[in-house]
What we know:
Elements (H helix, E strand, L loop, with lengths): L3 H6 L13 H14 L9 H4 L10 H6 L2 H7 L6 H19 L8 E5 L5 H8 L5 E5 L2 H14 L4 E2 L8 E5 L19 E7 L1 E2 L2 E2 H12 L4 E5 L2 E8 L1
Parallel strand pairs: 1-2, 1-4, 2-3, 4-5
Antiparallel strand pairs: 5-9, 6-7, 8-9
Amino acid sequence: MIDLRAEMSKLPEPPNDSHPPFWPYWQHDLWEHAINDDPENFTTWPCIHHTMLVQFRNMDWRWNELPMRYKKVISDLPSPLFENAIEEGYHLYQWEFVTGKKVEDLTRILEFGGGYGQMAWLCRKLGFRGDYFLVDTPEFELLQQWWLDDQGIEAFYGHPYQDPDLYIAIYSLSVVEPSQRRHKTREADSYLLAYSDHMEDWDNHRWFDQWMATTGKRFTVWQMPDRPEDWYAVC
């Protein structure tokens, strides 16, 4: 298991000239807390608490929608990881339901913007045995490596692997400046995307519609039943 404080200290201080909800702000926040605070308390850090945790939402409906095989691997987690695993599980199950595939049958997954690693953890617990690639900022990749190592979960970090079986981007593309999004995506056999319909004055619907048209694939796009401001795009 890596020493998060020591490894984070090796990185240059990120610019501190942004503000929420933009990710450069949270990138600096993570760098600062990882150097100065106990990583065991990482879920209390603003960069995690305000961007990833869902304990402020009622997760009962999503929990009830999950198949039993999901519930078995999630049920023993402590809060707030339990609630977040429901969140990630619900996203992943949408992909399985629409495509008719199972995550354990895949060989390569690439996730852009992996949070602290909960989706990678879930895929492994559900039986995925292939290569899992996480692509994020250097600061968040260190957090993912620290947490997943502690959980005994194997992943690769910072590798822009081409042509994965499944490309996952849960809210991550929609918070990136639109002009910078295309080089964050990868050609993949299948996609699981979740995005908000707005971010500042960016027209996310227009961008995702235009990008999906370039893939040559047929996406299923729909509003989340319990969050009408948020959308799925799956193929």
